[in-house]
Amino acid sequence: MAADNPGATDRVLGEIYEAIRALVPFPQVGHSRSDLTSRPLRFHPLRNYLIFHITDEISIMVLVILHGRRNPRVIAALLRDRE
Known about the structure:
Strand 1 and strand 2 form a beta hairpin. The chain has two helices and four strands. Helices cover 31% and strands 28% of the residues. The longest helix is centred in the N-terminal third of the chain and has 16 residues, at 6-21. The protein starts with 5 loop residues before the first helix and ends with a helix. The chain has a four-stranded antiparallel β-sheet with strand order 1-2-3-4, with helices on one face. The protein has one domain: RelE-like (YaeB-like fold). The chain is of the alpha+beta class.
């Protein structure tokens, strides 16, 4: 996308940053996927992407942002690699 349309890339990145900032007041937003990892993982969609994050009492950690068409088994393997 970046090479084909830099403006579109900037817009999508801006939306991703805004979605991550929106987690601060509502860190429990999104869907839980205990079948993908043993961590308290949550995800929420943004356009064609899924933002995966975990939270604790003081922080929010975005683990990965993946295209939503990824196979859930591939997503689970990627998340296990980050544990």
